[in-house]
User: Fold this.
Amino acid sequence: MTEKEIMQTDTRLPEPSQLSEEDEALLASFGKPPVLKERYSMEDFREIVDTLRGDHGCDWDKAQTHESLQKYLLEETNEVLRAEEKGDDRNFCEELGDLLLQIVLNARIAEEEGRFTLDDVITGISQKMLRRHPHVFSEHPRPITQEENDRLWAILKAQEKKKL
Assistant:
């Protein structure tokens, strides 16, 4: 999907001052909004996504598949890049969160399908970073030059591909 196609699917919510009486009634029908904590952990976030996909969760979230989420994954990735380019840290942080949602949601769907879990994703990338940074994590870590780093990365990546 192109960026133009993504932008055409982007819908913006009305400003609170522009809400119709019907919209205000819809919001009021839910009672008080949830109480928000000052900080959330990754585990908290996983529980939120699990709730959204659970029996009493959100029908839209429960209906999502890897295929239906592809456009959002691309959209959020592009939004992260645009926010970083602008140097807007607040928006950059928000967009990274939106991208994280796509990753966690896709991992949750894969778990429901019995394919893999978010812990498998985290384990895989953790092991890869540890393997590919022996100059940091090995028995004898030491600083290396950029040239050594590039060579080391290529060597280790090639070794990993041979094992697949």
User: Anything to note?
Assistant: The chain has two domains: 1-7+39-117, 132-164. The two ends are 30 Å apart (CA to CA).
